Amino acid sequence: MAVQLRRILWGLAEVIEVVPETPRTKSLLLEVPEWEGHEAGQHGDVRLTAQDGYQTQRSYSIASAPEDERLMLAVDRLDDGEVSIYLTDVLMTGDKLELRGPIGGYFAWEEGEGGPLFLVGAGSGIAPLMAMIRHRGAAGSDVPTRLLYSSRSYEEIIFREELETLASRDGALEVIHTLTRSRPEGWSGYDRRIDAEMLGEVGWSPEESPLVFVCGPTSFVEGAADALVRLGHDPARVKTERFGPTGG
Amino acid sequence: MTEGFFSRGFLGRRRSQDTELPPGQYLEDGFPVLSAGPTPRTPQEEWDFSIVGEIDEPRRWTWEEFSQLPSEEITRDIHCVTKWSKLGTSWEGVSVDTLLEGVETAAEYVTAFCDGDYTTNLPLVDVTGGKAWVAFAYDGEPLEPEHGGPVRLLVPHLYFWKSAKWVRGLQLTTYDIPGFWETLGYHNYGDPWREQRYWGD
């Protein structure tokens, strides 16, 4: 978690591809000249400028591993989102996007920090956790890792196929889904919001001293983090990243 | 490096209040929560607030004593480094001037220390002279734990991470000790009007 203090300058990224992940979420694959690298879990700032000079900024978690060739941001389309609607509906391959980062350094994991790792996410809160899972894979780490991931429906599970593939060939990586609104026929997994009981069943016991990362909307993170502390986890080993219901 | 660039097809959504916002901020009607870990919950009987460090006699208030201090109503705009601003938020709190009344100190800085081991650093002149409060109510209600309750520091002229949640006291120091976010790449001072978000801004 060593943070090297240096100025974080704006640069122009090129959009290589816009990948639809779910009906509401797209991944932006970016080529960023002079990117100085990041740690899994960090985020970047995006700045949009209209022709008359009007500007606005937002932060997005980086979903790619430090080892990946392209930088990936996962963007959830919010119905009233000024920036997210532009990024998901207007932006296309070949466009330029103003970006600076990486930013943050507390909600970050590097394979040398070990584990076991318990990743708890909801919706697009998967983005920084995916960066950790990808980093873990790219680094050839065998740190035991469990992802508990809450989505509204099967179709809205972001990175579903990649998670399946990674888990199928890696005995130390387990992916557990819960679907809160609708389930496909024959679904045998969890079907409710993440609660203390689920965290207790899926996660490691506090005695195994896991490193826990929780990311999602505020109410989700508040609930999960409170439950983890009540289950006996050391608050200092529970790291959280929250985003509000508005603001995209 | 990016001068003259504009985003193809971006029109933007201007709002009439945009002129009141610091650069790069957007207006937020809700009250987003940001913190690095679980929300700490200290039982009231164990809670205290203290002034320590460069002070002859450290000061300490229990919850009951703190509740009896004279308080003020405060209405200010707040600006979070994550880009949202909220206008005209109303608080009730004890002025830091009240807590430091009569204190003679060689200190030029303070470190606010908190439950959950969070710290943030500020120049002493930025928390005195009617610029900072220890707030216990928001919008007429006791401050909720997720927003920093029972009390948080309120320093509205700086980015909101300086308004430390779950604050338990102020350490007066003669030198500047960068706090939690300040050592993680965020700006040491954090003036939103100069857009001092990150180190070197």
Alpha-carbon Rg of chain B, integer: 18 Å
Largest sheet of chain B: 6 strands, mixed
Percent of sequence in beta strands of chain B: 25-35%
> What topology, given as strand order, has the largest sheet of chain A?
4-3-6-1-2-5
Please tell me about this protein's structure:
The complex is a heterodimer of chains A (248) and B (201). Chain A is of the alpha/beta class and 248 residues long. Chain A folds into 2 domains: 11-103, Elongation Factor Tu (Ef-tu), domain 3 (Beta Barrel); 111-243, Nucleotide-binding domain of ferredoxin-NADP reductase (FNR) module (Rossmann fold), CATH 3.40.50.80. Helix content of chain A is 21%, strand content 31%. Chain A has helices at 82-90, 126-138, 160-168, 196-202, 218-230, and strands at residues 11-20, 25-31, 43-49, 55-61, 71-76, 96-103, 117-122, 145-151, 173-179, 211-217, 238-243. Chain A has a 6-stranded antiparallel sheet, covered by helices on one side. Chain A has a 5-stranded parallel sheet with strand order 9-8-7-10-11, sandwiched between helices. The two termini of chain A are 28 Å apart. In chain A, 46% of the residues are buried. The mean pLDDT of chain A is 93. By secondary structure, chain B is mainly beta. Chain B has one domain (21-194): Alpha-Beta Complex (Sulfite Oxidase, Chain A, domain 2), CATH 3.90.420.10. Helices cover 4% and strands 30% of the residues of chain B. In chain B, the strands form 2 sheets. In chain B, strands 1, 4, 5, 8, 9 and 10 form a 6-stranded mixed sheet that branches. In chain B, a hairpin with a 2-residue loop joins strand 8 and strand 9. Chain B is globular, with a radius of gyration of 18 Å. The two termini of chain B are 15 Å apart. The model of chain B has no long low-confidence stretch (mean pLDDT 93). The interface between A and B is large, with 52 and 41 residues.
